[in-house]
Specification:
Oligomer: single chain
Number of strands: 17
Strand order of the largest sheet: 7-6-5-8-9
Shape: globular
Radius of gyration: 22 Å
Amino acid sequence: MKNVFYIVIISLGLFSCTSKIENTSTPVTDTTRTNINYADGFRVSEYKGFKLVDVVYPYQGATSGYKYLLIPRGATVPEHPADYKIIYTPLTSIACTSTTHIPLLDYLNETDKLTGFTTTDYISSEKMRARVDAGKVQELGKDSGINIELLTVLKPDAVMAYTMSSDYGQFKKIEALGIPVVINAEYLEKHPLGRAEWIKFMALFFNKEKTADSVFQIVESNYRRIQKQAAQVQTRPSVLSGIVYGDTWFLPGGQNYASKILDDAGCHYLWESDSSHGYLELSFESVYDKAHNANLWIGVGNIKSLQELEQADHRYKKFNPFGAKQVYTYDGKKGAKGGSEFLELGYLRPDIILSDLVAIAHPDLLPNDTLYFHKRLE
């Protein structure tokens, strides 16, 4: 599963394929630009009778993307380049590979369209768990090795997947069955609201754009309101994040999504001046030198208590937040089968994450708010 959580869209850049698209029986008469304000990873152009969706950055380091022609059921498919993938809409069934796709379906009122998922125990959504428990969602196995035979029997209208590399091998096998694969690259967005805006991507496949716009407007409004409150603070508590795996301390780079949301919460993330967008891999000693006097320690994986944290590495006791009991996990809420609600819902609801962080860093600003995802370790 995926464990790792702008600019007004410009036109899609159809020049390389315009001659083929425009010389069809469905000429371009409507080139309205879909309202994508934060997400960089996908673009949409609307034509008379179909839509062209471009996932421009499907994985880290990608130099090309994937294009999908969304065709209404029963309509004629226009002439198109061979690498364009045809999707008939609206989907009547879908299989997904990441828990982050689950709330997109829930918030679009398309919960009942999920028929297959890689590892159903990871699903936390109560609505979707009811569907799983009723036997209406087929478990497909680990997403690195989906059970093709089961997928053949299930035959969903599409599989929504993600990829960390250019390896398309498994997806080619799925597409050979006549099941289109749609790549969702929400995890690469650098802005918290950019990740949330991928609900508009999911909506395209169900003709639910208006619903997606309404959902996103609420999330954006909440986020901006809380951000504005946090911008008024006079002091910004210093923040440490991450823990050691093996011999390496992993923590967000300065331009990472996590760093951005900490900044919006009125925090001073100690690596905020770093220029990287991914995750830093540092030695324990270098992190200790920089962060042992931090005010807060936010994000310690699935550690459940200070005792467990100390047992993982006794040196953690040397950090100020440990002694001050200011260590927080984002895994405060779990689903019925132990799935992480943060890892499932967090991409779509950065406003809830931001509210948590402001309540932790500046409790006087949101005195009536209780933590949703986060929890202080005891």
